[in-house]
Amino acid sequence: MKILVVSLLRIGDVILITPVLRGLKLKYPTAEIHLLINRESESIAPLLPEVDQIWYFDRQLIQESLGEADLSLAEGFLRARELIHNLKGQKFDYALNLTHTKLSGWLTGMLECEVRAGLSILENRTPAISSHWFRYLNEYSAITGSDSFHYADIFYFGSGLEGSTPAFCLKETEKGRAEAATWISERPTILIQTRTSDDKKNWPLNSFLEMVKLLSILRPGYEFILLGAPHEAEGLEPLACQLRQAEIPVQLAICSLEGAFSLLKRARLLITGDTSIKHMASAADCRTLELSIGSSQFQKTGAFNPHNIIIQSRQACAPCPHNSPCSRQTHACAEQIAPEPVALIASKLLDRDMAQIRVTAEEYADQISVYKTNWSESGLWQAISMAGKFSKSDVAKMIARVGWQLLISGEYQQPLAQFGSHSLRLLSLLKSTFPSRSRWDWLQVFGELETDLEKVEAGFAQGVPAYMTDGTIDFQKIKALRDTHKESHLRTQIELKIVRTLRLET
Amino acid sequence: MIETRTARSGVRFLVVNGKQTASSIDPRKEASKWAQAHHQRVQTRDLIIVLGAGSGFHIEALEQQNSGKPIIVFETDPEILLHLQNLHTFTDQVQLILIENEAALESFDYKQVVGKKFVVLKYLPSLQMNPRLYARLHLCLTGRDRSIPAAYKALLPACSIYEIENALRSKAHLNESDRIWLMLKELVK
Fold it and tell me: B188 vs A75: CB contact, 8 Å cut-off?
């Protein structure tokens, strides 16, 4: 059996799909697994386990030939056609698209294989999406925001893999070990990756400086390593100099991804806002303090392992849209995260002292939101607020997430639907998230939510009109609208059942 | 009218209708700098296309800096090509092609270049002599002209990638080429 997995975004997204690669190898031990990634992500290739062959999409070269006036327009076309012909020649049995862009959809649609999963666009322009999880990703993930499932979970369960919790996996290389040996000392290490690929996601270097100064006082025995890619060296040198002047043991590690992974394997903690490095930390089992700034949506791409901490500012505009520049005069969401709480939380995270982290989170609750990552009882990743204020809407969001899960997984269709066990787990999660709430509080909020949902449910009875608002009849649109309506109705019914069960169990 | 003059460095260069096609001080040095300026763009390509033969020093410099890499030079003035024979002896690496007018532009066998990984370099002193024809030639070579040459038409079903969706709108079933172009359209949004 030959399987092709398509991941045509960035390095961080390639790491996100490593649980799928491992899961496929476990499910089909004799299968040959091929991976298609962008040439620009080539540096991650040596770290990828379970892959028999890697194919590259020359995105930048193709883009250049299409966009640069002095290059042949045909060159990009011929390059893409050659790749597609080579892939077709492999005669894959199964193509799994984990990218969900139109480009990847067209490409997957052109592969002649028996089974295709994920988005593929066919010759009659029809998009085909194989699983409810991918449908959720395609249609709802963008709008669900803070209730969204983690992409790694969506990819894993959407690929039809079950039975274990998805875990990131990368393999250490000799080159990486040798590179890391340059910086590793006897002292315990804290790694800091200050820069991200997007300026909007960067915490100011001065904040890093102050944070490290404070953390070095709290943790005198530790050594700090500033991680960076070769193109970041110039920008990081002044920070390293300033820290050395303050007599803080610090090294600047300008290294490859292989070197960075080996350093992560030996470090006690990583502090960063960067997506790729935090995913690598999850694969290396290195505890992570994530600074979620700008357009970073930790619900979808957060530090994936349990017992990590995520800090986000409480600015109303955060997270902002990916493709637009910061709308504020100053980078408010980054500036609102002060160095003090970051250093305090980092220090407590080294001790795994979640109780003290909660105290700090409560103390700085007017400026930052602090989340702890873990697996839910049903095996999905979640980030739980460490000092969340009790509100009906927060409880409603948590119920909605379980509703989505039951709907997507199809569990609600089982003769003995899992409302009871899911509701019990949810109740336990709610009580641990808001420990000071009394039974009376819970009964009251569940009662109110039940009433709200009943009103929504009644609204669905009115159905969908047989024509659009402008009076025209567009059968495709009406069908899509009816499908959405049916699905929303079903989700409301599921949520209603959960709330009723919660009330009974309280 | 074309005349030959001697530069301060001692080499001869061409003046076309009173306009110099190379430096009157040191054409070789100037050409070497020109070729060096394009070095990075040329390095990753398999074929170099030059628009304008000028006095030939820039071609000579490209030849020296990119040994073995084929160079195709397009010139619109046949007289310049005749004079060049007296000024330079190019190796087999260089192919000089005359495109005198629109008819020659239409009849040129674009298959020579369509599938190749090339870059077009413009030699400005030559381009100023016949800007319209060179501009069209540039668009035809890169497949970006509204009336695309046949060799490109076989590949590209619209007059530009930006119009590909409109061009294919009426097709119920797309062939592989159509689907590749629609895929690539996603990269130029």
Answer: no
The residue type found at A10 is R
CA A212 to chain centre: 27
Tokens of B41: 């763009």
Within 8 A of A63 by CB-CB distance, chain B residues are 187-188
CB contact A109 to B (< 8 Å): yes
CB contact under 8 A, A69 and B142: yes
User: CB-based contact (8 Å) between A76 and chain B?
Assistant: yes
C-alpha distance from B41 to closest chain A C-alpha (Å): 10
Output the CA–CA distances (angstroms, integers) from residue A488 to A129, A238, A483, in the order listed.
19, 54, 9
Residue pair A368/A337 in contact (Cβ under 8 Å)? The answer is: yes
pLDDT tens string, chain A, 506 residues long: the values are 999 999 999 999 999 999 999 999 999 999 999 999 999 999 999 999 989 999 999 999 999 998 899 999 889 999 999 999 999 999 999 999 999 899 999 999 999 898 999 999 998 888 888 888 888 888 776 665 667 899 999 999 999 998 778 899 999 999 999 999 999 888 999 999 999 988 899 999 999 999 999 999 999 999 999 999 999 999 999 999 999 999 999 999 999 999 999 999 999 999 999 999 999 999 999 999 999 999 889 999 999 999 999 999 988 888 888 778 888 878 888 999 999 999 999 999 999 999 999 999 999 999 999 999 998 877 889 898 888 677 788 888 888 888 888 888 777 777 666 677 888 888 888 888 788 888 888 999 999 999 999 888 887 766 655 555 555 656 666 666 667 777 788 888 888 888 988 888 88
SS (H, E, C) B35-94: HHHCHHHHHCCCEEEEECCCCCHHHHHHHHHCCCCCEEEEECCHHHHHHHHHHCCCCCCE
How far is Cα B147 from Cα B106, in angstroms, rounded to an integer?
10
Nearest-CB residue to A77 (from B118, B174, B184): B184
Q: Would you say A270 and A250 are in contact if contact means Cβ atoms under 8 Å apart?
A: no
A80 vs B119, B172, B180: nearest CB: B180
Query: Kind of pairing, strands A381-385 and A368-375?
Result: antiparallel
Q: Could you tell me which chain B residue has the CA closest to the CA of A110?
A: B176
Chain A nearest C-alpha distance from B69 (Å): 17
Q: Which of A327, A99, A290, A285 is nearest to A196 (CA)?
A: A290
Q: Hey, what amino acid is at A407?
A: L
Q: What was the ipTM of the complex prediction?
A: 0.91
Q: Is A106 part of the contact surface with chain B (CB cutoff 8 Å)?
A: yes
